[in-house]
Write a structure and sequence with these properties.
SH3 type barrels; single chain; alpha+beta; 2 domains; 358 residues; 6-stranded antiparallel β-sheet; elongated; 19% strand
């Protein structure tokens, strides 16, 4: 590490954290103006507003904006260096362009590592605190009813509920079917299907069981049955599972369980899992693109280079959104969809580095 390395690292990280802090302050001010009436209406304590809401608010936005502001920070201070002919002096002093990029790589790895830690370990913790605060002070009790739900309990066992109320955790017109290689072997129909929160069991009311055999069927009736299933009330919700409060290890375990149940939401969870890894790498790729774009002194000044930088960064975000939509609602594999923008922009980074002034 030489003085020039420390100079670039300080410029890089200093510009990045300054611009990020500035945008977070602006976002918080707008959020306060929007939610102030709710804070007053629900008598939220000042300490909880600051500590349990806005301090937990910051890691999420740091991670959300880190690739974008990494790119903008690189373009801004590198173009200033180029405008002041500092880069010409560095390259004329015998330092190769590859060697010149080393402090940028170190800084990008620092920011990427921070992003990985935030998204996979810290943010799930802060989201729990923030969610509790929002539940108490910002929104009313959750209530929703969903209709015609099919859920796989485990392989060969399909649950069907005509309607399910998430508030009371009760479903109506419940059916359980067991299927093997020979076809349907068991069918249970019941009027009511309710979750007992005290012991985690399901209570089935007014049921009829049909056992299907090659030599004939047998029937069994009853008023109440206490049983267990792998599914939980959240599996019957229209919203996604609370993956925002799961760390990377918990998320992987959760996805494995959901695949065994055959839930239709698995693609959403896998996209989120791959995003948590792909975003830190995007920071490094966008850094290389930013250096290559802004290391040349242009007649139009740094404004033109900043404009190019903003266009490329928003193009990256658009490509990411389009590819994830194809993954969640189309046939594209989740890991391909999430990593595709990184792959495409890696090619662009290699081309720009090759064309950059040496």
């Amino acid at each position: 590490m030489k003085k020039i390395d420390w100079y670039i690292i300080k410029k890089f990280l200093g510009t990045f954290f300054f611009t990020l802090a500035l945008i977070i302050v602006i976002v918080i001010i707008f959020d306060i103006s929007e939610k102030l009436d709710d804070f007053i209406k629900h008598k939220a304590p000042f300490y909880e507003i600051v500590v349990h809401y806005y301090l937990t608010f910051i890691p999420f936005f740091v991670n959300l904006f880190s690739p974008l502001f990494t790119f903008i920070a690189v373009v801004y201070f590198t173009s200033r260096m180029a405008y002041n002919t500092e880069i010409i002096a560095i390259l004329s002093g015998g330092i190769s362009f590859r060697r010149f990029m080393r402090p940028y790589l170190i800084s990008a790895i620092v920011i990427g590592s921070l992003s990985f830690y935030l998204s996979n370990f810290l943010i799930p913790i802060t989201n729990k605190v923030k969610l509790d605060f929002e539940t108490h002070y910002l929104r009313s009790q959750y209530y929703h009813t969903k209709y015609n739900i099919h859920v796989q309990d485990k392989k060969g066992e399909i649950l069907y509920v005509e309607s399910f109320n998430n508030y009371d955790k009760v479903g109506y017109n419940f059916t359980l079917e067991k299927i093997d290689n020979q076809g349907l072997t068991f069918k249970l129909k019941a009027d009511k299907f309710q979750y007992d929160t005290t012991n985690g069991h399901w209570l089935i009311s007014n049921y009829v069981i049909r056992h299907i055999h090659p030599d004939g069927d047998t029937f069994e009736k009853g008023k109440l049955m206490d049983t267990t299933f792998n599914v939980k009330p959240a599996d019957f919700s229209t919203s996604l599972q609370p993956i925002d409060v799961m760390n990377f290890i918990e998320l992987r375990k959760f996805i494995k369980e959901e695949k065994e149940k055959g839930t239709e939401k698995v693609k959403f969870y896998e996209v989120d899992k791959h995003k948590r890894i792909a975003f830190p790498f995007a920071t490094i790729i966008l850094t290389f693109i930013g250096v290559s774009l802004s290391s040349r002194k242009l007649r139009g000044g740094i404004g033109l280079q900043l404009a190019f930088g903003i266009v490329i960064s928003f193009t990256f975000i658009i490509v990411m959104q389009i590819s994830t939509v194809f993954a969640t609602f189309g046939t594209l594999t989740p890991w391909v969809a999430v990593w595709l923008p990184n792959f495409l922009f890696s090619i662009l980074a290699v081309y720009l580095i090759y064309k950059a002034p040496k």
